[in-house]
């Protein structure tokens, strides 16, 4: 009787382990995101609770690897987010519904700040929290799929900056938008960490970016960085880690498949068979050069505000492995902001930025 009980216990334990392994298994899910009629390109598809994400292509299609017990979150600016439990599904098509805009939201324009309901120009806003959720070296990469009319193209190279286009390509200033950080015009924002950003406002048409003249012809990305509230002193540390990989590799044949296809071609043209005796290789070069790249962002900041003087000291560390092997990037950034209010009409602003790459 004791022996039978032992065997039964082992059998139950084995079944539990088998079920647990099955639950944790990843499945590849694909589908299409639409607004009920037309596809939605650039919609964000994220595995809930993780940094695994992708975006839909021009036809609204997506493919993503997700645990069978996971939940997919579908998001796009101007539409209500959707959540779907994967379960046993391998194909999930989503129809998203439009959401109403928050008319009380305050956005940054060239003339200061205005409430959204008072605006007539094409302006979109993204909060710093949304940007900081994704472990990207460049905060611009985190805008992908969050703003209609904004195209973000990432090269996958370690430390590379994405190509940004607002409403297509123009012939002015290489089609790059103008960056405005806390009211100061910038050519790029390579030195900014995602944890520094309070909000991002995109001015997408002529009426909203008119104050910047010809420099704003390709659109304007206005960034407001974080500040301490009056009477507060803050010390903040954030860390964010993740991985990046290529999900859609080129489907190629192995050596045996190549020989079969090549022999068939030779037979079709009545050519002599090829001698493969000197060719023994069977290497998939994609697998040899591609890797899952690690990303890590660490940020330590100190800020204080006594009403007349506002000081921010920020130290950031960024590390990234590219999707190609032996391609890495590491950066240290020290940023010091000092604002002094001399009176109601005069403010002195000093920026100090130190980069070590």
Q: Uncertain runs with pLDDT below 50, 5 residues or more? A: 1-23, 102-106, 113-120
Radius of gyration: 26 Å
* CATH T-level topology of the domain at 106-225: Ferric Hydroxamate Uptake Protein, Chain A, domain 1
* CATH domain class name of the domain at 106-225: Mainly Beta
Portion in helices: 10-25%
Sheet with the most strands: spatial strand order? 10-15-16-13-14
Order of helices and strands: HEEEEEEEEEEHEEEEEEEHHEEEE
The structure class reads mainly beta
Under the CATH scheme, the architecture of the domain at 106-225 is Beta Complex
Find the CATH superfamily of the domain at 106-225.
TonB-dependent receptor, plug domain
Average of the residue pLDDT scores: 79
Share in β-strands: 35-45%
> Largest beta sheet, briefly?
5 strands, mixed
What is the terminal-to-terminal distance?
70 Å
What distinguishing features does this structure have?
single chain, 357 residues, mainly beta, Immunoglobulin-like, Ferric Hydroxamate Uptake Protein, Chain A, domain 1, five-stranded mixed beta sheet, five-stranded antiparallel beta sheet, 4 helices, disordered N terminus
């Amino acid at each position: 009787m004791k022996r039978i009980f032992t065997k039964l216990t082992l059998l139950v334990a084995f079944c539990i382990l088998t079920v647990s392994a099955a639950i944790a298994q990843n499945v590849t899910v694909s589908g299409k995101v639409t607004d009920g009629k037309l596809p939605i390109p650039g919609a964000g598809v994220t595995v809930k609770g993780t940094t695994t994400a992708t975006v839909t292509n021009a036809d609204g299609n997506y493919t993503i690897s997700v645990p069978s017990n996971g939940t997919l979150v579908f998001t796009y600016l101007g539409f209500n987010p959707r959540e779907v439990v994967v379960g046993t599904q391998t194909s999930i098509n989503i129809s998203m519904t439009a959401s109403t805009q928050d008319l009380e939201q305050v956005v940054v324009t060239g003339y200061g700040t205005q409430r959204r309901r008072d605006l007539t120009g094409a302006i979109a806003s993204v909060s710093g929290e949304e940007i900081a959720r994704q472990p990207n070296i460049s905060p611009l990469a985190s805008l992908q799929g969050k703003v209609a009319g904004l195209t973000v193209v990432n090269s996958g190279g370690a430390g590379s900056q994405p190509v940004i286009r607002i409403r297509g390509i123009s012939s002015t200033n290489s089609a790059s938008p103008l960056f405005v950080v806390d009211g100061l015009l910038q050519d790029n924002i390579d030195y900014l960490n995602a944890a520094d950003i309070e909000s991002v406002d995109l001015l997408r048409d002529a009426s909203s970016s008119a104050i910047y003249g010809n420099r704003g012809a390709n659109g304007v990305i206005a960034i407001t960085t974080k500040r301490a509230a009056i009477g507060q002193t803050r010390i903040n540390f954030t860390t964010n880690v993740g991985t990046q990989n290529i999900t859609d590799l080129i489907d190629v044949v192995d050596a045996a498949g190549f020989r079969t296809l090549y022999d068939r071609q030779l037979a079709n043209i009545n050519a002599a068979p090829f001698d493969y005796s000197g060719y023994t290789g069977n290497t998939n070069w994609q697998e040899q050069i591609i890797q899952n790249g690690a990303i890590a962002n660490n940020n330590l900041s100190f800020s204080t505000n006594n009403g007349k003087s506002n000081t921010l000291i920020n130290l950031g560390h960024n590390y990234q492995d590219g999707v190609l092997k032996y391609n890495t990037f590491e950066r240290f950034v020290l940023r010091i902001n000092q604002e002094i209010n001399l009176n109601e009409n005069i403010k002195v602003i000093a920026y100090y930025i130190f980069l070590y790459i």
